[in-house]
Amino acid sequence: MQTDDAAQGSDGAPDPQEGFGPNAYIDWAERLNGAGERASACGSGRMQARGVAAGAEAPLWEPVFVRAREAGMEPDTFFDAARRAEEYSFDPFDLEYNVALRQRDQPVEAFLYRRAGPRPGAQAFEAMFEVLTVGVPVTRTADTRPAPGLRQQPCNPRQAIGIIDDGIAILHPRFRRACGGSRFRAAWFQTLTGSDEILFARDVDHELAQLATRSEQELYAARAARIYAPGTRHAMTRAGSHGTLMLDLAAGADPRSEPEMAAAPIYAVQLPPQAFDDTSGRMLQPYVVQGFRWLIYHSLVLDRCERLVVNLSLGVVAGPKDGTSFMERQLRREMDRVRSLGCDRRVDLVLAYGNAREDRLVARQPLGPGEQAELGVLIQPDDLTPSYLEVRLTRGSATSDLGQLGVTLTAPDGQSFGGCLPPGPPALLPGRNGRAMAALYHRPAETPAEGPARRAVKTVAFAPTVRVFDGDPLCQSGRWILGLENLSAASMDVVVQVQRDDSPFPRRTGARQARLDAESAHGWQPSSRCFTALTPEGPLTHAGTNSAWGTVPPPRVHAIGGALMRPGRVSAAEYSAEGADWSGLGPRAGAVSETTRSPSGVLGAGTFAAGTLRLSGTSAAAATYTRHMLQALPVTHDAGDPSRLGTRTVTDNPAIRRRP
Predict the structure, then answer these.
(1) Could you confirm whether domain 159-352 is CATH 3.40.50.200?
(2) Which residues contact 256 (CB under 8 A, 6 or more apart)?
(3) Which residues pair with 410 in a beta bridge?
(4) Peptidase S8/S53 domain spans which residues (predicted)?
(5) pTM for this one?
(6) Three-point CA angle 614, 280, 581, nearest 5°
(7) What's the CATH fold of domain 362-534?
(8) Is 94 left (phi over 0), alpha (psi -120 to 50) or beta?
C-alpha cells in the first residue's frame, strides 16, 4: 500500500504548482478508469464506488497535504485564505490542530481537499503553500467536517492506546470498562464522501445501551447506511475484521482479570473501506496521516494524556525505504510536534516490519558500465487489479543518475517498449483493444524545501488481466521480461521491488500477486520439500523485503518482526521480512505471531462478541508489541536473528486465545 509523493498535470507532465514528477500510481489508475469518465470506479481494481452510487453526478475532489511557504504565518491567516478559495475545502480540525501543536518557528501544515481540474479562483491561495502529496481524486461534498459527537470533560489518563485500521468493533465486550461502559474516548469513522462520523465516550455508551434491544450487526449496519454509499463493501458485515483483532491483541481485556489494561482508554480511527481495499497504498496515506494527527489531538491535547501508543499494522513493500517518503516524513514531523506540549507528553508509533520475505518481490542487480541484465515478471491470470514495479538505484551506486539506466519491458507475445526514458509522460504499450496494457514512468530526483533529497524512481505499471467493464485495458498474463542496461560509465546497484497488490485478510478484492522470477529462484527448499528457495548467486533476495513505511528513525517508532513460538525455541516466522543495507533500519524488536506451524497465526476477537479470528503476520506481532509497551509481557533477549526480530522478542500475549 504505497505510492511516492508526486502530483501531475492532466497531460502526464509534472504540475509546476507541486514541483514533483508524475505519480505513476494515480496516473495509471485514472487511465484505467478512463481518466475520470466512470466516477463510480476507483481503487486498485475499480472494485469500489468513489463514495457515491454508480451514475451519480458529483465533482471530483483531490485530497492534498500542504505546507505554508511562510513559516511565521499564523493558522488563522492561512485558514481564512482557505475559506475564501471556493475550490478548496478543509475540516476545521486542521485549524484547531495547528493552533494547539504548531511550533512558532514552523509553518502551518494542513490536509485540504481541492477541486480536480483548473482552479482559476484559487491562484492567490495556492501561492501561499507548497503541496507535499496528492491523493486519489474522490467524489464528495465540499463540507469535510465530520458530524460532531458529544464533547466530554478531559480524563487525564496516564497512558492510552490508539489504533488506525479498518473494521473496528467499538461495541465488543473486550473494549469495555469494569462498570460496563466503553473504553473508547473518541472514534473517527472516515469516509471518502465527507459523511464521516465522530463518536465520543457517551456516544458509544449510548449504543451499548441499545444492545438490550438490538444486535451488534444491526447497529453496525445502521452506521454503515448513514456514512457509506449504497453498495460500499465494509468489514463490519464479516465475522472477522482486521482492526478488531489488532485492537484485541493490543488492548483487549477482561475487566475482572485485567483491570490495569481495562482501565486504559482507546482512541480509534477507522479508515475509509475503499482506501483499505486499495493495496497499492496510493489512496491510504493522506487518511492515515490525518488520522494520526487526530489521535494526537484528542488524546494528548483534549484529554491531556501523558502517553499515547499508536498501533498501525499496515504496510507496503516497494518504496525508497530511507525515511524520505511522504508517510514517513510526515509521521515523524507529527511526533516531533508533540514536544511542543511539554516533556510530560509522549507518543509512540508501532508498525509492522513486513511479511514479504518469501514472496519473491525484491531483486538486487549490480551492473557495471555497459552491462545488461534481465528479470522475469510473472503477471497472474484472472487478476482484477493492476500490478506495479519500482526500479531504483541504491546509495551504493557510483552514479545517482537513474536516467542512464535503460529499462525495457517485453510482453509474453514478444512486444517490447521502453529504453532510456526521460522524465515526463509515460511510455505506453498498447494492448489488443488499442488501450495501454502497460506503462513505464520516470520520476526524477527532487530536493524539497525541508528534509533530505528524494531519489529518482522508475515505475512499471500493468493493467489487470481480466476485464471488469467492456473496453477496459487488458494485460497479457504470463512471464514478462524486464530488461536493465547501464548506459553510464559508472557502476550501478539496481533494486527492483514489486508493489504488493494482494489484499490483507480478510479482504476479498480479486487481486492475485505478481512476483519476480529468475533461474536462480528455484533452489531446493528443505522445509517445504520443493524447489522454491532462492539461491545466493541470483538477483532475487530476501534482504530488503521490509515494509517501506517502517524506516522512520527511532526512538519513538517501533517496527516489529513476527516470531514463531515453539516449546523451548523462538525463531523468526518464515514470512517475517529481512532488512538490507539499502532498506533503512532493521526491526526494533519481534513479537509472537505464530504459536504452531499449523494452523497458522494467533487467535483473537472476531467482529462480534461471540466470534474469533485467526490471523498471522507481523501486523499481529505489532499489535502484541503495542500491548507490551503498556503492560509488560514476557520477553526473550536471544532470539538469534536480529535482522528479522531485533534485539528482543515478546513471547506471549494474554489476549491470544489458547484454543478455538
Answers:
(1) yes
(2) 178
(3) 416, 481
(4) 160-357
(5) 0.91
(6) 90
(7) Jelly Rolls (2.60.120)
(8) alpha
